[in-house]
Amino acid sequence: MATAAAEALGLLWGWLWSESFWLPQNVSWADLEGPADGYGYPRAQHVLSVFPLAAGIFSVRMLFERFIAKPCALRVGIKDSFLYQVESNDTLEKVFSSVTKYPDEKRLKGLSKQLDWDVRKIQCWFRHRRNQDKPPTLTKFCESMWRFTFYLCIFCYGLRFLWSMPWFWDTRQCWYNYPYQPLSRELYYYYLTQLAFYWSLMFSQFIDVKRKDFLMMFIHHLAGIVLITFSYINNMVRVGALIFCLHDSSDSLLEAAKLANYARHERLCNTLFVIFGAAFIVTRLGIFPLWILNTTLFESWEIIGPYPSWWLFNGLLLILQVLHVIWSYLIVRTALKALIRGKVTYPGGSRPRLSGQFHPLHVSKDDRSDVESSSEEDERTHTNSLSGSSSSNGANCMNGRTGGSHLTEEQGDL
C-alpha cells in the first residue's frame, strides 16, 4: 500500500512539473540547471524563501505602524479615541445580529412599544452599534500609511533599475533567447519582495480593516500570488517586473488620498484622488493592454510561440484586466455620483468651482469601502445621550443619518 501511495505521489509530482506544460518545446528543466551569470535561472525552491520574508515584512509593518505611522497620525490631529460602547440591550442586539442592522419605520415602532423606548433613542442605538463595529480612523490611517510607504519605495526601486534595462524600452527583448535569461541581483530581490508582500497581504487582510470589497481583494491577492509564482518559475520575470512597476505607479496615490482624507485635508484629498483616478485608468485600461498584453499575447507568440503554460499565464493576465475594468468603473461611478447627486460642499450657499470642492473620498464615503465613517464623526454623535432626553439631540441623530445612511452604507464599494 505504501508503494502504491508513493507511485501515486510520483505521478502527481511528475504531472505537476511536467516539462511539456511549463516549458517551450525542446526545453527541459535540466537545461535551466546549468550555470548562468548573476543569480542563475529562477528555480521553484527560491519561492520557499518568500515565507520568512513575508513574516519579516509583516513584522516591519507592525513596528512601522506603532512607532512611525501612529505618531504621524497623532501629529496631524487624528485622535487615539476610545471606542464607544452602546447601552447593553439583548432585544436590540438580537435584532441587530440576526435580523437587520437598519430597521425600517415599522420595526422601529414595534421595538419602541416592546421596550418602551423613544423611536429616536432606538435609531441612535442602531447607529452607534453600527459605528461600534467600525475601526477608528487612527487604525485606518496607520494601515494606509504603511501601504503608501511600501508602494512608493518599491515603485522607486523598480523604476530605478528597470530604467536601464533594454527590455523596459523594447518589450520584444522580454522573449529573445527565452527561457535562457539569467536573473540579475536587482530583479531577483525585486521579484521575491513583491511576492512576499502579496503573501503578507493575503494573511493580514483577515485582521485588517474589513471592507466591502473583501472578496474582490481576496481574489486579486490570490490571482496575484499565483501569477507571480507562476511567472517566476516559468522565468517570465522580465515582463512580470514591468507589470509590477506599472501597478505600483498608481497604488501609492490612492493610499496618499486616503491619508489626506483621514487627516481631513479635503483639498489635498480631492487633488490626489483626481490624479489617482486618471493614473489608474491610463495605466490599467491604456498602458496595460497596449504595452503588457500586447507583448505577452502577440510578441511572445511571434518569437517563442504558444505552449500550455503560455495560455495559463495570459489567462491570468486577462482575469487581472477584467478586475481593472471593474475597478475603473467603480472609480468613475464614485466621481459621477458625487457630482450628479450634488454631494459637494457649498460654503456660504455659493456654488463652488469644481476644483477644491469635489470630495470623492469624504462626501462619497458610502461609495468607497476604503473610507468608512471616521471615528471622529462617531465621537461627535456619541456625545448625544442615548436616553433621548433632548428632542434636539434626537433630531441630530435622525437628520441625514437614519434615512439616508442605511441606503448609502450598504452600496457596493471600490
TrEMBL record:
Low complexity composition bias: which ranges? 384-394
**DNA-binding feature ranges:** 94-137
Instruction: Provide the reaction this enzyme catalyses.
Output: sphinganine + octadecanoyl-CoA = N-(octadecanoyl)-sphinganine + CoA + H(+)
Q: Where in the cell is it found?
A: Endoplasmic reticulum membrane; Nucleus
For this UniProt entry, which segments traverse the membrane? Answer: 148-168, 188-207, 214-233, 272-292, 312-332
Q: Where is the TLC domain?
A: 139-340
Protein name, UniProt field: Ceramide synthase 5
Give the lineage. Answer: Eukaryota, Metazoa, Chordata, Craniata, Vertebrata
